[in-house]
Design goal:
Elements: H1 2-12, E1 20-26, E2 29-35, H2 41-45, H3 50-66, E3 70-75
Parallel strand pairs: 2-3
Antiparallel strand pairs: 1-2
């Protein structure tokens, strides 16, 4: 899942070299944390959170194949 989020985020931002994606396990759930440059934060979140919601939807659809619950968090 980390690679999927990283590819999507790098395609959206102006500074792809500053995209950092980490995975951690919490309560049986895989949490994918996405960090981008502060100037690119709006591009990743989108108007009214539409881009962030779309990223979460794609990851959720991809995670159904593995059967594991995955969530995406955008952190500063």
């Amino acid at each position: 899942m980390r690679e999927l989020v990283e590819v999507i985020a790098k395609a959206l931002v102006d500074h792809p070299e500053e995209v950092a994606v980490t995975e951690k396990e919490a309560d049986g759930e895989l949490v994918v944390e996405l960090k981008v440059a502060s100037s690119d934060m709006g591009k990743v979140i989108g108007r009214q959170g539409r881009i962030a919601k779309a990223i979460r939807s794609v990851v959720k659809a991809a995670s159904t194949k593995t059967g594991q619950k995955v969530s995406v968090e955008i952190v500063q």
